[in-house]
């Protein structure tokens, strides 16, 4: 049988109350948080890293899929299929010199017809600005380690930070 330990019972202080808690500040989380806060909800984003943007910042190439695959289907009408807050971010990046905007793919367009290159360091600053303007509270370097539920309803999350990390050392 696998060896286990039983952790001691802990009294965990309740740090935050909010209307909308966004678990993870990747592209989905940041845009959801902006939409939520702009509509008046007290919004918190909890992110394990020290920046927002998630996988898009940590490994992706150009951003895909703002447009349909019109080049792969001759005769198809070119259409922008993603607008709203994602487009607003691109507009802010262009304004700040952090993107050329959407550019046509010259090859590989069965995968994507238009690609959107961004400067990731400029993105990091702009998305912080947008969060501040919308009034989103950010908890960075903060790991979600568990959820708290009442029945089937999610009530909150348990977090751990660099300062208050839970550790177990075995000799
Ligand atoms: C290697 C790679 C290359 C890619 N290339 C491209 C590309 O070229 N073009 C393109 O358009 N798309 C690309 N993608 C896809 C694109 O990056 C993802 O579709 C998109 O980033 C998903 O966004 P998301 O917000 O759903 O998730 P994620 O970006 O994964 O965001 C999740 C966030 O949650 C945080 N998180 C996770 N667990 C916890 C926790 N327990 N506590 C606190 N925070 C937590 C993470 O740190 C992260 O910030 C690529 C993805 C990868 C992995």
Keywords for this structure?
binds flavin-adenine dinucleotide; two-stranded antiparallel sheet; FAD/NAD(P)-binding domain; 3-stranded parallel sheet; 4 helices
Could you explain the architecture of this structure?
The protein is α/β, with parallel strands linked by helices and 171 residues long. The protein has one domain (20-161): FAD/NAD(P)-binding domain, CATH 3.50.50.60. The protein is built from four helices and seven strands. The chain has helices at residues 27-38, 55-58, 84-95, 120-134, and strands spanning 20-23, 43-46, 99-104, 114-118, 137-139, 142-150, 153-161. The strands form three sheets. Strands 1-2-5 form a three-stranded parallel β-sheet, with helices on one face. Helix 1 (27-38) links the parallel strand 1 and strand 2 (43-46). Helix 1 (27-38) packs parallel to helix 4. The radius of gyration is 20 Å and the shape is elongated. The chain starts with 19 loop residues before the first strand and ends in a 10-residue tail after the last strand. The structure holds flavin-adenine dinucleotide (FAD). Flavin-adenine dinucleotide (FAD) binds at residues 24-29, 46-49, 54-56, 59-64, 143-144.
């Amino acid at each position: 049988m696998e060896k286990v330990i039983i952790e001691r019972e802990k009294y965990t202080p309740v740090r935050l109350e909010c209307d909308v808690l966004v678990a993870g500040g990747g592209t989905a989380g940041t845009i959801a948080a902006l939409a939520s806060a702009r509509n008046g909800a007290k919004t918190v984003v909890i992110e394990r890293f020290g920046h927002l943007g998630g996988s898009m910042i940590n490994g992706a190439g150009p951003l895909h899929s703002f447009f349909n695959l019109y080049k792969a289907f001759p005769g198809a009408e070119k259409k922008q299929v993603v607008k709203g807050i994602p487009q607003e971010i691109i507009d802010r990046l262009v304004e700040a010199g952090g993107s050329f905007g959407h550019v046509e793919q010259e090859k590989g367009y069965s995968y994507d017809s238009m690609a959107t290159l961004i400067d990731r360091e400029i993105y990091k600053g702009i998305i912080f600005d947008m969060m501040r303007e919308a009034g989103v509270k950010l908890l960075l370097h903060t790991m979600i380690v568990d959820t708290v539920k009442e029945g089937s309803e999610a009530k909150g999350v348990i977090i751990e930070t660099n300062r208050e990390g839970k550790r177990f050392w075995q000799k």
